[in-house]
Every structure is written in structure tokens, then in C-alpha cells.
Amino acid sequence: MEQDDYLFVDGKTLKEVDEKMPPEEELQDLADFFKIFGDATRLKILYVLLCTEMCVLDIARVLEMSQSAISHQLRILKQMDLVKNRREGKTIFYSLADSHIVTILSQGLDHIEE
Fold first, then answer.
1. What gap in Å lies between CA 42 and CA 6, rounded to an integer?
2. Do 108 and 62 meet the contact criterion of CB atoms below 8 Å apart?
3. What is the pLDDT of residues 84-109, one digit of tens each?
């Protein structure tokens, strides 16, 4: 295939793409963020926390899973700032970190239901 067979993008378009493209580090952070939503167990936990805050034991009971499996996934969700926790005595309660998580879940569901 000769070079003439390719479509070349004009300088204006290249500049526009370059201005809109986030820095590489931000793109990697965004990719890591979306990977979190690639696990059904983590999504189930987020949907549970969408309803109310809960402790690990209650989440495990609702989802019929082990406490250790729930704790492991909550640790990942907390590291990515998707959930937060608060302590009440010896019990730690988890909840969604902010309203952005609700928006992401609802828009994702809207998209796949179209």
C-alpha cells in the first residue's frame, strides 16, 4: 500500500485532538478506575451500598458470600475512593464515597439497557 492510499488528518484536527487528550498518567488512572467496575462482586457491593451503609458481615449475608471475600473487595473499592467507612464502636460501616458513583452506575446501566 502506498503512502497516497492513507487519509491524512489536517493540522487543525491534530491540534484539537492533542488539546482534548488528557495526560498519559490521567489516562492510566482512568483506565484503572474503570477496571474496578469490571468485577460483578464489586458491582454488587456498590449496589448494596447504594441502598444503605452496611458493615462487612451484613454485606456478606445479603450477597451470600464470605466476609473475607467482601473485605477483600471493599479494600479495593476503598483504595480507589469508591467507598468510605466510619467506625461505630468495634463495627466499621461502609458507604458510597460520593454521588458520582451513583451517576456512573446509573449511566452504565442505562447504556446497556438501550
1. 44
2. no
3. 999 999 999 999 999 999 999 999 99
Whole-angstrom CA distances from 55 to 14, 17, 87, 92 are 50, 45, 10, 6
Output the nine-digit C-alpha cell for 39. 468485577
Tens of pLDDT, residues 40-73: 999 999 999 999 999 999 999 999 999 999 999 9
- Distance separating alpha carbons of residues 82 and 73, to the nearest angstrom: 11
**Cell of residue 55, nine digits:** 458493615
Residues 6+ apart with CB under 8 A from 74: 45, 56, 59, 83, 94
- Domains of the chain, with CATH numbers? 39-113 (1.10.10.10)
pLDDT at 4 over 80: no
**Cell 451517576 sits at which residue?**
103
Please report, for residues 21, 94, 109, the alpha-carbon distance to residue 25 in angstroms, rounded to integers and kept in the order given.
11, 29, 28
